[in-house]
Design a protein that fits this description.
Blueprint: H1 2-13, H2 34-46, E1 52-53, H3 58-65, H4 68-71, E2 75-77, E3 99-101, H5 107-115, H6 119-124, H7 128-141, H8 161-168, H9 199-204, E4 206-213, H10 223-238, E5 248-255, H11 260-273, E6 278-282
Parallel strand pairs: 1-2, 2-3, 4-5, 4-6
Helix pairs in contact: 2-3, 2-11
């Protein structure tokens, strides 16, 4: 945020912006996670944003970048390094239309360093590999949790590498594994629920269910096949002997087109218009 404030200050000093233009920034924490990024995009869209600055993490950019052309709000990011983001984005049918990367570095360029005949020289000159490895070695030496050793590769022929690796490295590191603890963060905004009972619903005796599935009748789990089963279930639970006797159960549905983008937009629509408190199906 301080960087944005400085940018606005300099833009106004250079009279790039007209004096009447009011800029408002709405900060959102995406946790570097695609799900939270989508939720942040929903909240921002509900505030009628004109431009998205970020996210930066690639999976977050992917989830929001596919949706911005439907929201009619362009996205500018300092991230988006994956190959897909370097593809053409100038026409509406393009996957990431209205998404703009700031900067020239991407993973495609890094891969060219190793795969292209002149990739190294184009990156940082003739000795790119040596300079890169030298920097890596210095970083490794500074760490206490990594054992560092070296051996001469310039004195051996191309076919000596296998034997040299056996001699100098062998199976010393075999069997060592890194265990990373995995934690699950609770869901937000009621987008995913495992129960149809909540204090809000109990007070109003109303359940709103959103069904998101493909409208294509040839799909195995299309709306055409799902909605009759939903109707039967709604009737069963709202009968006098059912678990929710006398309750009003409202079912609305959207076509997901079997697409992660259209499915997300359908969830956005339900959330913004408050037409569904629970999702029955997401396909």
């Amino acid at each position: 945020m301080p960087v944005l404030d400085l940018a606005v200050y300099h833009a106004r000093a250079e009279k790039i912006f007209p004096s009447w233009l009011q800029l408002t920034f709405l900060p959102q924490d995406d946790h570097c996670d695609a799900t939270y990024a989508q939720i942040a995009a929903i909240d921002s869209y509900a505030e009628c944003v004109h431009l998205f600055l970020g996210p930066a993490c690639d999976y977050s950019v992917a989830s929001v970048g596919r949706a911005v052309k439907f929201l009619n709000a362009p996205l500018i990011t300092t991230g988006a390094f994956t190959f897909d983001f370097t593809e053409k984005k100038t026409a509406c049918p393009d996957e990431y239309f209205m998404t703009t990367r700031v900067g020239s570095l991407a993973f495609r360029g890094i891969s060219d360093v190793f795969l292209s005949p002149n990739g190294q020289r184009n990156f940082a000159g003739r000795h790119t590999c040596q300079l890169m490895m030298k920097s890596m070695v210095q970083s490794i030496k500074a760490r206490q949790d990594i054992t560092f050793g070296n051996f001469d590769v310039e004195s051996m022929g191309l076919y000596d590498y296998r034997e040299s690796l056996k001699t100098n490295i062998g199976n010393y590191y075999g069997g060592n594994a890194l265990t990373v603890p995995v934690t699950r963060e609770p869901s937000r905004h009621g987008l995913v629920t495992n129960s149809i009972a909540s204090p809000k619903i109990i007070d109003h005796r109303i359940v709103k269910i959103g069904v998101i599935a493909p409208a294509d009748p040839h799909h195995e789990q299309s709306l055409l096949k799902i909605l009759p089963a939903v109707a039967l279930a709604v009737n069963a639970v709202s009968l006098a002997k059912g678990p929710l006797p006398g309750w009003t159960i409202i079912v609305d549905y959207r076509d997901s087109k079997c697409s992660s983008t259209h499915g997300s937009l359908a969830a956005f629509d339900f959330h913004i218009n408050k037409t569904a408190g629970h999702f029955y199906s997401l396909i």
